[in-house]
Amino acid sequence: MPTEAKWWQSAVIYQIYPRSFADGDGDGMGDLKGITQRLDSLASLGIDAVWFSPFFRSPQKDAGYDVSDYKDIDPLFGTLGDFDTMLEKATSLGIRVIVDLVPNHSSDQHALFQAALKAAPNSPERDMYMFRDGKGDSGELAPNNWESVFGGQAWTRITEPNGELGQWYLHIFDSSQPDFNWENEAVKLEFDSVLRFWLDRGVAGFRIDVAHGMAKAPGLPDLKQNLSTMTGLEDKNSQAHPFWGQDAVHDINRRFRSVLDEYDDRAMCGEAWLPTIEKMAKWVRPGEYHQTFNFNYLETPWDKAKLETVVNESLIGFGAVGAPSTWVLSNHDVIRHATRMGYDKVPKQGDGIGPNYPQPDEAKGQRVSRAATAFMLGLPGGAYLYQGEELGLPEHTTIEAKYREDPTFFRTKGERVGRDGCRVPIPWEAHEPAFGFNKTGESWLPQPASYQRYARDTQEGIAGSTLELYKRLLKVRKEFDMGNGELIWAPEHASENSLAYKNNGVLVLANFTGSAISMPAGELLATTQHDLLVEEVLEHDQVVWIKL
Ligand code: GLC
Predict the structure, then answer these.
(1) Are 109 and 59 a contacting pair, CB within 8 Å?
(2) Helix runs in 202-262, H state only
(3) Atom 7 of ligand 1, residue of closest alpha carbon
(4) Which residues have a Cβ under 8 Å from the Cβ of 37 and sit 6 or more positions away?
(5) What gap in Å lies between CA 453 and CA 167, rounded to an integer?
(6) Dist. CA 94–CA 47, nearest whole Å
(7) Residue 476 CA: distances (Å) to CA of 79, 282, 368, 376, 521
(8) Which residues lie closer than 8 Å to 394 by C-beta, 6 or more apart?
(9) Which residue, judged by its Cα, is nearest atom 6 of ligand 1?
(10) Handedness of CA 488, 490, 495, 498 (dihedral sign)
(11) 360-383 pLDDT tens trace
């Protein structure tokens, strides 16, 4: 007998980046009060849950992914009381709330790291992080050759309490983000307690940051090649990486899962950038994560053959371990897909786009990203959306150096501009200060003038707008329960340049390139091509959903 479907297996989860969603107090930085006021708009969009990027206490050296207190809200975003109010409102709207857990590293301002700095080498306090003696005659060289994902070396040398230069600590990211030692039981107990704190408060689950990085290879061996990326491997088949995707991390996965299983119906999704879907699927075996982001899907361009392959690999790979796949096109670390898809050759993820880079073709980006979304939202499984994509929002690709905040920019001396371009406050009302982000016009990152055209109020109720397209797709997806459906390729409805699949009585037909194609008969449920009813042929870079 089939078991009852769980909410997360088919959920559409909307990522809120708290700094940039809505600013209630007008200081230019988004906050929980602002978010609470805007939650109705998410209910009308038709999503099932929200995932919040971190709003915990933090010096904000990496936009909140440097946590100094996991059990409190940073004053920038409000208070625990504001969180409870937001949670109550979300719950009343039928929206579940997922928070971001950052267990690979803390902030260097975390009490545990401060205690480690004050304690002696080899003390229990030091053992909670990754301290090592340096190499060279007087320990002046880093313990190994690892580089930070944000550029520069992954080790920083400290000054010991006696005033002398001493040990080094590991930070896979910024020097303000020391890595925890996940072999230490006290670290595990600490995170059991953090998980329970938020579960007791009523969250539906967690997005787990850097879920593939917590276990390091014994002896911390040198890397043959430093790539400073989240997978670290150029060749998908090369041997294991010393800190990405180590086998020992699965014990940590199971530990988190056992805490979640103390509660009803909670779920966790891992941010695990792994080179193949086969490896990703290991993260969602029984007793481990419920979901993992399908970054292979995110990295697949709008290309018939490549999409067909990645969908097949995903359904087979995740299916083999009994897990539904997830689908995602954008988040706060990658170039927004409305911009990415406006390039023939996509700039490297994580490096971002600056004013001196070749600029994208905006119209193409809009056309292709709408089609890519309509293709994705028809697939069975869970889906993740990133705030602003429902407006077709492009990346801010011309941010001046003086506004940059991403540590990548500073650690590479501007060589890689980083991820600020996808993190700019989103536009709500075209003719309000900061396009409705707040009432004062302040904004922690500047908004480009073009955001006026994408403001939500210019799209609300307008036939053919991207916002109305998302609403329609989400509505039909729910009506036909496509999230819990089964994909069946329908080559009989496709041509050389198009791809068709069926899912729970809906035919999804995508035309990729070349000439227009005729459409099969049937009720039109949703379309990216605004004038379709008149023309009755599907142009390239367009997707249609038809009732079979
Ligand atoms: C994850 C986050 C990213 C952050 C990094 C370090 O990849 O998504 O924003 O910079 O981890 O915490």
Answers:
(1) yes
(2) 249-260
(3) 210
(4) 22, 24
(5) 53
(6) 9
(7) 37, 32, 21, 13, 18
(8) 336, 338, 339, 342, 360, 362, 365, 366, 450, 454
(9) 65
(10) negative
(11) 999 999 999 999 999 999 999 999
Interval between CA 84 and ligand 1 midpoint (Å): 25
- Residues in contact with ligand 1 (CB, 6 Å cut-off): 62, 65, 102, 173, 209-210, 271, 332-333
User: For residue 321, with 0-12 CB atoms within 10 Å meaning exposed, 13-18 middle and 19 or more buried, which class applies?
Assistant: middle
pLDDT digits (tens, 9 = 90+) for 172-224: 999 999 999 999 999 999 999 999 999 999 999 999 999 999 999 999 999 98
Nearest partner of 386 among 50, 95, 93, judged by Cα: 50
Q: Please state the atom number of ligand 1 nearest to the C-alpha of residue 102.
A: 12
Q: Say how many Å lie between the CA of residue 65 and the centre of ligand 1.
A: 6
From 84, 133, 262, 536, the catalytic residue? 262
Q: Buried b / exposed e across 62-80, counting CB within 10 Å, b at 16+?
A: bbbbbbbbbebbbebbbee
Say which amino acid occupies 431: H
Q: Is 100 annotated in the active site? A: no
User: Which residue, by CA, sits nearest to atom 12 of ligand 1?
Assistant: 65
SS3 127: helix
**Whole-model pTM over 0.70:** yes
**500 pLDDT higher than 50:** yes
E strand spans, 43-199: 49-52, 56-57, 69-73, 96-101, 131-132, 155-159, 165-170
Cα angle vertex 359, ends 421, 361, to 5°?
A: 105
What's the whole-number average pLDDT of the chain?
Answer: 96
Looking at residue 230, its pLDDT comes to 85
3-state secondary structure 480-501: CCHHHCCEEECHHHCCCCEEEE
Distances (CA, A) of 342 to 328, 367, 399, 427: 18, 9, 18, 21
- Are 161 and 138 spatial neighbours (Cβ–Cβ below 8 Å)? no
Place of tokens 């009060």: 33
pLDDT tens-digit map of 401-444 = 999 999 999 999 999 999 999 999 999 999 999 999 999 999 99
Q: For 20-47, what is the mean pLDDT?
A: 98
Residue 417 token pair: 């501009």
Contact 233/227 with Cβ under 8 angstroms? Answer: yes
